[in-house]
Amino acid sequence: MSLLxxxxxxxxxxxxxxxxxxxALEFRxxxxxxxxxxxxxxxxxxxxxxxxxxxPFVFEMMNSRHATGAYASLTWFHSKGEMYxxxxxxxxxxxxxxxxxxxxxxxxxxxxxxxxxxxxxxxxTKSKSITPELDVSYSPLQKGEYIGYRVxxxxxxxxxxxxxxxxxxxxxxxxxxDRTVFHDPEFHLF
Length: 190
Known about the structure:
mainly beta
């Protein structure tokens, strides 16, 4: 957790150092954005997950309104690996997020993968270290539905997964609790 605080603080210092380009930095404590997603990882299989982003720092830069903060996500994906014929992997990740004009979300963070295996999934193998991830998504209608691309490393490929880097394409729905931050006072599901 201290790594997340350091990265968030570094991003905040970077924003503060570019004060002549950044206007009206404000704090919006209600800017929580939960989401659900489903996708496909090339070389592995289907994936689904849940996430929460908290972006309370809002600013204007280059004629756009942005919000920044932190996120956490949990992803399950199915794969046929080298050792295990078919199994589900779980990746937990956290990091910093930049949310722009209610349409573009960029996230950078770290993750760790877990594999439960054997009979009744009693045994558990974790990736040996935390690994980086990058996620870029876009909402063409700006109503909460996103298409995205995420690249991450599941960790050590030696615990049954035959890919060392996962490339995921996905569709997601994210609900912004503070719709007025991007000058959208109304909310319509579809």
